Amino acid sequence: xxxxxxxxxxxINRQLVHLAGVFALILAPVCSSASxxxxxxxxxxxxxxxxxxxxxxxxxxxxxxxxxxxxxxxHDLAQELRNRGIAAASxxxxxxxxxxxxxxxxxxxxxxxQHGISFTPAMHDEGYxxxxxxxxxxxxxxxxAGIFYGxxxxxxxxxxxxKTASLHTAQIRDWPAxxxxxxxDDLSRGPVPTLEFxxxxxxxxxxxxxxxxxxxxxxxxxxxxxxxxxLPGGVITQQQAAELVRYAAQYHVTILPQQEAFGxxxxxxxxxxxxxxxETPLGMVLAPAQPGSLAMIRQWFxxxxxxxxxxxxxxxxxxxxxxxxxQTASEVQQRGRGAVYVDFLKQIHSALEPLxxxxxxxxxxxMNEPDLVKTLPKDMIAVAWHYSPEPGGFMPxxxxxxxxxxxxxxxxxxxxxxxxxxxxxxxxxxxQGFVRDGQALGSTGMLMTSWYDDGExxxxxxxxxxxxxxxxxxxxxxxxxxxxxxxxxxxxxHDSSGRINDVERELIAAHEVLTKSGVxxxxxxxxxxxxWSDAGMIAGKKLMPYAHDLRMHAERALTLIAEVRxxxxxxxxxxxxxMDLGARRLDFIAFKFQxxxxxxxxxxxxxxxxxxxxxxxxxxxxxxxxxxTDGHCDDLQQGYNYLREEYRDVWLEENRPYWLENILxxxxxxxxxxxxxxxxxxxxxxxxxxxxxxxxxQALGLPNWPISx
Length: 709
What we know:
- By secondary structure, the protein is an alpha/beta fold.
- The chain has helices at 10-27, 68-83, 106-114, 144-156, 195-207, 238-250, 266-269, 291-307, 329-335, 337-352, 370-373, 395-403, 424-440, 463-474, 481-493, 499-517, 523-528, 534-543, 547-564, 573-608, 616-627, 632-654, 660-691; strands spanning 46-54, 59-63, 96-102, 128-133, 136-141, 158-159, 166-174, 180-186, 212-217, 254-255, 258-259, 312-314, 358-362, 381-385, 407-411, 445-448.
């Protein structure tokens, strides 16, 4: 999926970040004040904090029934105890006993009555209650999913490790606001995760009550019918997908495949075999008029149905901008693009009807044709997507479908595309507003997206935004950003010091500085651009007055990360590695422009003094600053080389080697650029030492000096 440029709204959106905490405090549900000490994601509907119980003698898990789901929930809790060095004790010896009880059991009804808790119909599918009396804690639910989610909340109530661990007790009544809580994972723009990492994603997403993992395919699924589209090592095989489906089911996570069935199909349509199906030569949009287009779609989704048992499937169909530019030009001219587009969606619906799946589709193209939307089959689900905050709200993206009587999902974004680290200030506001408005209009689902248009994004950098989306979709109404920013570190990383939370705040502040500078919202471009190119000089003029502030925020984040890493109890260290990489790349952006300007200024200074023999020693020193060991060129070459290795390490923590070399080559080219410039200045230095002459800046290919310190 491509993404719109919202940089013109960035200044307003940044100001909203600072106001979000105030509004959230006004609109957030009210809980017991003692619950402020509980760092829970998502925040339960009703929570009243109790005592804190020592786990020095361990914790016993008692499953009061023989349901397989509940046995797995008990196993999952036992695994958490092992990971944290907490003894899984017998009930006779344990400090705390946890019981898993189905709501229809007599003892559950007795316990709920004793605590004055009503178990309402809204809680039936996924809701739960947690109660405690002395050292007894009960997790009560009507379903396996409810028991599992109650256990996930219980895990977050544990603080510390080993003999010093304790359990925060609480009375909780909880259930989700939205039925479908999904996370999209782009597998078609470069990064392809290992099966092992996908399993870790599933486990983590489920811990925060996400119930759908949605891999996005353009050409990255191994179809028997179109085997040429996917490259070896860069596809999810049907066997791997089936294993992931089985694994996810234990965690009450459904795998919902997305297969683009209209646009975004360049990797397939660039093959000669499929040229007749392409709207334009070597294009990316299927030609609806070609019978083979529908036949191929039918075959794809038949193969998907054999692997993915979900009753939902996503057909994509976004950003079909080339429709009408080629084979369907005359039809679009006669009937209009909207009519041709909607008709093809209806044809896809009819073709896939025998599979008995409900079809989701991206809502961006049809939303501007409200009359045509009313002709779409009512069992289709429109997924409205928009990735920036909207001060006026998100109703325009939803109302065409609501008025047509269609079910809707909302789809915010992690703002990770074209970024060296996600712009989480934008993400938090986008998620908060979109999910709030979706709930108000009856949207049944939330699909949080992460896209890798640049081919180099890392899912490990996205957890901060993804988990806020998980919280917002479970919680009712407008989620509290400031509360989440306090809960994230303790919940996800077991960091009670506040440092991880401050790291994320510093990285948000770094993005705010970049926005103030006016360089735009895409930090990838700043990271790779040659500062002496025309584009680099324009960016440098804007950025240099803000370079100090940008570097200070990034380096404060790095200092905090170094302090956090001293704590052996910190969890999800791979995500901290990704934070470190993001902070270093943000810091390097400013450092690169500072160094490039210093070279220009130092050489200009040297040139201006060549006629004065008294300044010759100074000129020699200025040349050494440019080209010697630890000189500016050396710094930039080494910077790219170091970041190359750190990037490679983080990539391989989650992804297959496929595509990695495409990114590492960019680091190599950037490092070689400064290595060659260092060699050039070394020759200049040698010439100076020989005859005390210097070539002009123009002769060296240096730009003019429009940048000021």
